[in-house]
């Protein structure tokens, strides 16, 4: 059976949204001074120097490895040493000095161009030096994810020096896809070059066993900063496509909406976010809004999708979907309610929640959609409880974690319960006649009109950024005063 045009276009959009790689990598040739490293402890007699170019000798690398501590990692709320899961050496940033300046050499520019959507190329990203790691023969780190250290942290940058080594490839995994960053192969025969890889913080990664030699890395935490112009760096060789699907997403979406057979009467399209974001573990403030500033910090294809909708004159909205399939336009703090007997009733009656009726992508036998899985008590919400419903056609299914709230559940006896949510993007798509008029107006705009809109959008985003920072200022101050060194170590150690 030949697929309908609408089905082909919908399939194309789904594939395009997941086609963007959540990382970028490359190599950079540098002057010898950039490979100089000084390290040691308080005792000046133990301070040492090493040049981490390919000419570094085995004895000097061995002394660097001996000066490192055994690398621990976070397991739950604890920091543990388990060499069956991670075997490597680490040195904290205060114990060494490097001549390498990732901003000065243009590496942050490459990360901006290779990892962030086109709309964010005016952003200045900030790199915070985190650790030095040495992986000797037999060293490895099994699959793990990095924990964001703040609301504006979006990823990690790993720089690999050209010290002789085999093995130790970094394997990246995200939503069923896998990529391999083989620094040993990339740096073979390149004495004065380094390799780099930058990836979003929710990407799972694994360091494969080092077969021989020493794999020496610096890891940086990446944060969003202010806006500024970025110029390209000629010495960089980027291995992954830059902005590989920014325009493809917009084109695929525009083609789908222009098809008169696709949702001719209109409806609500839903998109699960492709990346995870740093929401607090629990919500303790009824006025806290998880959506404020979120559009400013979207990653990868999430940012591209949001921008594509706004460019077409339509309004993408962030919404929460509860574990009971109730859609909310704000976060709810159940702890303020005292004892709660029926969470669903409270969400529907007190907070204008909507019972979710899901239609998910099918693609089988020429069908665009099929009935989604239904929460077992969903019909009861509409019946006995009396909740209104919302039908959502999911282009990509909602997934990943969002904010949660704890509450005191009232039953045969009181117990502590948790109200879980997922964040998604919903868009109310008008009928074909109205949306074609909207698309026609957008496509007919002059370059000056689009430029003016971009400037207005940037101003709005900067205002959102200030509100976002103010909103979490108190929370971040509290975080800094709690636990400090021990809690920092409990966050996952990086490569």
UniProtKB/TrEMBL annotation:
Family annotation (PROSITE patterns): FE2OG_OXY
Residue segments, region Disordered: 441-495
Transmembrane spans: none
Compositionally biased region (Acidic residues): 449-495
One Pfam family per UniProt: 2OG-FeII_Oxy_3
Gene Ontology terms for molecular function: metal ion binding; oxidoreductase activity
The keyword Ribosomal protein appears for this protein: no
Domain spans labelled Fe2OG dioxygenase: 126-224
Top-level lineage group: Eukaryota
Keyword annotations: Iron, Metal-binding, Oxidoreductase
Assigned protein family: Belongs to the iron/ascorbate-dependent oxidoreductase family.
Entry protein name: Fe2OG dioxygenase domain-containing protein
Organism: Dichomitus squalens
């Amino acid at each position: 059976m030949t697929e309908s045009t609408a089905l082909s276009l919908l399939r194309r959009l789904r594939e395009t949204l997941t086609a963007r790689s959540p990382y970028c990598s490359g190599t950079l040739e540098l002057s010898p001074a950039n490979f100089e490293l000084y390290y040691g402890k308080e005792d000046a007699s133990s301070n040492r120097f090493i040049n981490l170019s390919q000419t570094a000798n085995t004895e000097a690398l061995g002394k660097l490895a001996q000066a490192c501590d055994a690398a621990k990692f976070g397991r739950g709320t604890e920091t543990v040493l388990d060499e069956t899961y991670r075997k490597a050496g680490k040195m904290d940033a205060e114990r060494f000095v490097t001549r390498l300046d990732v901003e000065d050499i243009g590496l942050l520019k490459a990360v901006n161009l290779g990892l962030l959507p086109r709309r964010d190329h005016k952003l200045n990203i900030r790199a915070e030096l985190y650790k030095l790691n040495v992986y000797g023969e037999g060293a490895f780190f099994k699959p793990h994810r990095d924990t964001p250290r703040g609301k504006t942290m979006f990823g990690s940058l790993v720089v690999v020096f050209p010290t002789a080594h085999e093995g130790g490839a970094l394997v990246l995994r995200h939503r069923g896809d896998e990529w391999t960053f083989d620094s040993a192969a990339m740096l073979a025969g390149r004495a004065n070059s380094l390799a780099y890889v930058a990836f979003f913080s929710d990407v799972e990664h694994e360091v494969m066993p080092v077969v021989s030699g020493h794999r020496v890395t610096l890891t940086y935490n990446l944060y969003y900063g202010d806006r500024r112009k970025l110029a390209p760096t000629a010495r960089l060789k980027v291995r992954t496509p830059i902005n590989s699907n920014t325009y493809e997403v917009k084109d695929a979406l525009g083609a789908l909406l222009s098809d008169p057979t696709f949702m001719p009467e209109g409806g609500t399209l839903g998109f699960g976010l492709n990346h995870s974001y740093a929401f607090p573990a629990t919500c303790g403030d009824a006025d806290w809004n998880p959506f404020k500033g979120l559009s400013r910090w979207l990653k990868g294809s999430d940012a591209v999708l949001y921008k594509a909708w706004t460019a077409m004159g339509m309004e993408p909205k962030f919404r929460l979907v509860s574990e009971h399939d109730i859609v909310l336009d704000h976060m709810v703090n159940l702890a303020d309610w005292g004892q709660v007997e029926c969470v669903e009733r409270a969400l529907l009656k007190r907070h204008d929640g909507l019972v979710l009726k899901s239609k998910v992508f099918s693609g089988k036998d020429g069908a665009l959609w099929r009935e989604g899985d239904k929460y077992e008590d969903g019909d009861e919400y509409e019946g006995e409880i009396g909740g209104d419903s919302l039908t959502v056609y999911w282009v990509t299914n909602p997934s990943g974690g969002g904010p949660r709230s704890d509450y005191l559940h009232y039953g045969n006896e009181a117990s502590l319960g948790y109200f879980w949510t997922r964040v998604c993007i919903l868009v109310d798509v008008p009928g074909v006649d109205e949306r074609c008029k909207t698309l026609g107006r957008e496509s007919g705009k002059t370059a000056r009109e689009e430029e003016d809109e971009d400037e207005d959008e940037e101003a709005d985003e900067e205002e959102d950024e200030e509100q976002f920072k103010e909103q979490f200022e108190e929370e971040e101050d509290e975080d800094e005063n709690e636990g400090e060194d021990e809690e920092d170590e409990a966050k996952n150690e990086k490569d």
